[in-house]
Amino acid sequence: MGMKIPMTQQGFRKLQDELLHLKMTERPRVIQEIADARRHGDLSENAEYHAAREKQSFVENRIVEIEDRLSRAEVIDVTKLSGAQMLFGATVTLVDEETEEKLTYQIVGEDEADIKSGRLSITAPLARSLVGKNAGDVLEVTTPRGHKVYEILGVAYS
After folding, report:
1. Under a CB-based contact definition with an 8 Å cutoff, are residues 150 and 95 in contact?
2. pLDDT number for residue 20
3. Residues 71, 103 within the same domain
């Protein structure tokens, strides 16, 4: 059994929905595509057949992957968290010391991360350096875009 994977309730539901969609919609559809392609004769030169088989392999692997992640999920109820300390699920407001740009991120599980909507993966370098810090702390982070210095303005759980 692998490590526990922290995720929010939202992230857990999103994976459950994807799993249901794969099993109820994608899997039957790809089986149908394979059957249809089979009827077109010679399989060795049948591009549709090979594409459908490849898609099937992707769908089945993704199902296994999601089932594994769900079985190891540690769902964290963010609404029950509180305090000034930066932990999983927190929404943190930072200021870039250099540019004075304000940034707000919620620290979420890997599957939920979406930087454009302000959801930062717990595995990202910035998130890792935030964990355990408090409002007022200054942190230095080496990101793919270079060296950054941030001050934590606030930590909230909502």
Report:
1. yes
2. 96
3. no
